[in-house]
Amino acid sequence: MKKRHNFNAALLLLCMSFISILFSGHSECYIELSTNNELEPNAYKDTLSDEVFDYDFLSSPTFNHISNDVALVDWWNDGSSLFSVGTHAKVVDIESGNSFNVERTTGTNHADAETLTKNDTNVMKTIWKGFSWERRPVYLIINNKTYAASMSAMPHAGIDSEPWLKWVTNRSGNFNSGQNLDFIKNNDMDGHIDIHFLNSTRHMDNKKDPDHQAAVKKASKI
Fold it and tell me: So where are the chain's domains?
């Protein structure tokens, strides 16, 4: 009995040591846990300073966050694969509640998307009061899941009447000669529009667009 007692005591001590080591580095543990988009980072926020939460996590390439069923996902971590080329999504303008449908047709640093129909284009123009570079916070609904995003409604880099990827001149949005980046035809829109996620960047300079990022965070309510 004494040997069994000693063995149990040693085992208990070993377990307690392991638990102590595990929780002594709670900041590192939180960073790993926050990559799971089913976890709620606010549950662990009290263990970290506001400065760490506001900066390190929001700019981390592996940060994902869910609040009130709206997911804030990093473009480079999950966003690009969730909204992959060829994927259809519903865009919901947060301010007006109006919605329309799009398809991601190209884009690497962020999503280049096009409206599916003329009616979708008309709804988009109603929201933005015409074609516009204004960044607006939107919900992007993909497979019945809602994501925080930002969108501008200025079609560019394409001509609707010309074939996809044909070399053309005078592309929309004051873009010069290049491949025609207008994939969906007869939708009353020349070219594509931009949709940004957390940490996505511009194609022209590989930098984050501050207005898009602010709109994404507004959509996520953080």
Answer: 2-67, 75-220
* This prediction's pTM: 0.71
pLDDT < 70 stretches in the chain: 1-68, 222
Strands 192-196 and 132-142: unpaired
Q: How far apart are CA 178 and CA 168, in angstroms?
A: 6
d(CA 46, CA 23): 15
Q: What pLDDT shows up at residue 141?
A: 97
Residue 48's identity, in one-letter code, is: L
What is residue 220's three-state secondary structure?
helix
Give the whole-angstrom CA distance, residue 175 versus residue 169.
Answer: 8
Taking the C-alpha atoms of residue 122 and residue 129, their distance in angstroms, rounded to an integer, is 10
Helix, strand, or coil (residue 16): helix
Residue linked to tokens 């994939």:
183
pLDDT in tens, 72-82: 999 999 999 99
End-to-end C-alpha distance for the chain, whole angstroms:
58
In sequence order, the β-bridge partners of residue 91 are: 100, 140
